[in-house]
Amino acid sequence: MALQFQAALNLRSAPAIHKKALKKWNLTIRAQTATTTPEIRQDKTEQKKTLRKGNVIVTGASSGLGLATAKALAETGEWHIIMACRNFLKAERAAKSVGIAKENYTTIHLDLASLESVRQFVENFRNSNMPLDVLVCNAAVYLPTAKQPSFTAEGFELSVGTNHLGHFLLSRLLLEDLKKSDYPSKRLIIVGSITGNTNTLAGNVPPKANLGDLRGLASGLNGGNSSPMIDGGDFDGAKAHKDSKVCNMLTMQEFHRRYHEETGITFASLYPGCIATTGLFREHIPLFRLLFPPFQKYITKGYVSEEEAGKRLAQVVSDPNLTKSGVYWSWNSNSSSFENQLSKEASDAEKALKLWEISERLVGLA
Ligand code: NDP
Ligand code: PMR
């Protein structure tokens, strides 16, 4: 059966690889409607005078996409960034290295691989008495070369435990704070990725994301009596990361279905482009780290710089044109944003509900 290939990166931008790959994987192309969105708006002088600064929490703001987003937002002068990071000193140094002024950010410790730390973070944030206007769930780990699973403090496989379960508890708790905000546009953003979407070429590179019937997750994802993988299979670090991204995208949609109408909060996810130079690939073999950036730059043409990716995520945080809820944003090669389509699994409402209910139980909310 032919799969539908969704152009998360502009079809026009990489014709050679696309044509060959499409043939190989027997994929068909479906046209994409693109909407052009301006850069972060700084021209609303009227609004600026009356509006207080927005407060945005960015998890994993100590490097890569998170840091670039913090920088882009700080530069507008309209945002105070709460850098939610596991390494306090690294975060402070990172903010300094990109020139974020002291008055534009606060660092609060957060280790997503510990639910206790997530709860402590929420308490510390509340004690600061800052309102919360936007939450960005960005942090992630990727362990592609691990032969054996590692585990979070509560004993969940580390990639899904950090990228999904840690963020799930964080966003569920902070939803209450978002609800209280009087900011004109409140948002909860969970970073997704192309590699979790099997309706793309990148998502068809093995091992493919697949949550199956979630039996491994339901049994605790602890590698003891149960499997450390969501689908109940053998451990595979690369797959675990892709699975965690599917969880991120499903969670955003379930949030949208449950809370958008009632709260007015915008729930969104995105694929910012392939930021091949970030720390995400730190555990990969040296040859991969050497070849991956030129491969993405010159062959797939999916590469974006950290700076450009940061501007894209900053747009999802603050652009008045990107208030639609339940959307998975992507960008064309001319950097215009469009509403992208998720794969069948990443948009499966039944699976999203099941994931939500099992995750609630695992993090102690049900
Ligand atoms: P980086 O490794 O540069 O950034 C990841 C951040 O997550 C780091 O700041 C890291 O902290 C933090 N982090 C990791 N574990 C924890 C934890 N237990 N608690 C708190 N923070 C933690 O990678 P990227 O910037 O590339 O990744 C950011 C997001 O972008 C991820 O969600 C990733 O899936 C997504 N993405 C990345 C793409 C890419 O091509 N790079 C493509 C598509 C999506 P520390 O600095 O201490 O290590
Ligand atoms: Mg992938 C056609 C385009 C394309 C894009 C946009 C990406 C993005 N990749 C593409 C194609 C391919 N990649 C092809 C044809 C191959 C086989 C040679 C390939 C391989 C590959 C590997 C081994 N790609 C990778 C890896 C990783 O280890 C990365 C990964 O899956 O991390 C989870 C990765 C990525 N490719 C991307 C992006 C964005 C990644 C990082 C993934 C992420 O953050 O989700």
3D structure, described in words:
This protein is an alpha/beta fold. It is 40% helix and 13% strand. The protein is built from eleven helices and ten strands. The chain has helices at 15-24, 45-50, 64-76, 88-97, 115-127, 158-180, 215-218, 237-263, 286-300, 306-318, 349-362; strands spanning 3-5, 27-29, 54-59, 79-85, 105-109, 134-137, 187-191, 266-270, 327-331, 337-340. The strands form two sheets. An eight-stranded mixed β-sheet has the order 5-4-3-6-7-8-9-10, sandwiched between helices. It has a two-stranded parallel ribbon with strand order 1-2. Helix 3 (64-76) packs across helix 10, helix 6 (158-180) packs parallel to helix 8 (237-263) and helix 8 crosses helix 11 (349-362). The chain starts with a strand and ends with a helix. It binds NADPH dihydro-nicotinamide-adenine-dinucleotide phosphate (NDP) and Protochlorophyllide (PMR). Residues 9, 17, 142, 144, 193-195, 201-202, 205, 238, 241-242, 245, 274, 280, 300, 302 line the site of Protochlorophyllide.
